[in-house]
Amino acid sequence: MSEPILGRPQQLSTHVAFFVAGFTLAAWAPLVPFVKDRNDLSDANLGLLLLCLGAGSVTAMPLAGMLSKQYGCRPIILAGALLIALSLPVLLLTSSVPLAALMLFLFGAGEGSMDCVMNVQAIIVERASGRAMMSGFHGLFSLGGLVGAVMMTLMLASGASPFVAAMAIVSVTVVAMAAAAPYLLTYGAKGGGPAFAVPHGVVLLIGLLCFVVFLVEGAVLDWSAVFLTANRNADPANGGLGYAAFALTMTVGRLTGDAFVERAGRTFVLLAGPLCAAIGLLMVTLVPFAWSAVIGFSLVGIGCANVVPILFTAIGRQTTMPEHIAVPAVTMLGYVGILAGPASIGFIAQAVGLPLAFVVVAILLIGVAVGGRWLKV
Question: Which domains does the chain have, with CATH numbers?
Answer without folding.
Answer: 1-191 (1.20.1250.20), 196-377 (1.20.1250.20)
